[in-house]
Amino acid sequence: MIKQLVIDFFCEIEKRELKKNKNAKAVFWVQELQEVGYHDRNYIGVKKATRIYEKYVENKKKVSVKEPDKFLCDVMAQYLNYKNYEEYAAEKGPTEKIIKRSNKKNTWRFKEKVSAQKIMVSVGILCIFPLLFFIYRYNTAATADCIIWNTNLFEESSCAAKNAINNGRYNIAIDKFKKIEVTNETSFFSYGRPTIWYGKSEIGEISFFTHRGIHPETLKELKPITTYIIDKYVLVDQNEKTSTD
Predict the structure, then answer these.
(1) Total number of domains constituting the chain
(2) Which of 191, 192, 229, 228 is nearest to 209 (CA)?
(3) Which of 99, 100, 66, 75 minimizes the C-alpha distance to 5?
(4) pLDDT digits (tens, 9 = 90+) for 177-221
(5) What range defines the domain where residue 138 resides?
């Protein structure tokens, strides 16, 4: 079950954060999800995170790393929107057993009850499958996971609409994503982690947003706010700057 948890965890990082290689995923885990300090016994370094990936995702046999303890399992489960590892295991365990029993049952039925009549039915299904697939794609195109930009936020949209964006590719949490104006009173960080993202428009104007995602004009991935960007674009008064020369 821990192996499946690790696989689901890293797959979700790739899907949600657009991190493609194992090093980027390991760095994201350590730098963005970790809420304990370096000297805490539950702290995990990039090297250990990478080894966990290699052992459980890449199935490398000679990787020296301990099995993730309950704390790490809870962290991974919570990123997958579960309360803790126990809740993840309770939901995933029975499902896997049902699938295995179902596959065994279907295999037995196929071997014992196949007949000429069933073969003919199967051939008929295969013949009409392309047509059914076309009808399905046509009917669902207008209701797929698409969004469209409206002034300062994304809204759900038909994929047939002009300028619609397939959110299945970007996975933007549109209920949290909004374009805002920032000031020196804006809260840019929470417990050391950025709460504002930024990006430039097609004409080079910088905009600020309340969640990770893409710029609605360029479709380029936004970047998390930094003190350098705050000093350059927000804090005009030299006395307000967050860093000193």
Answers:
(1) 3
(2) 229
(3) 75
(4) 999 999 999 999 999 899 999 999 999 999 999 999 999 999 999
(5) 114-143
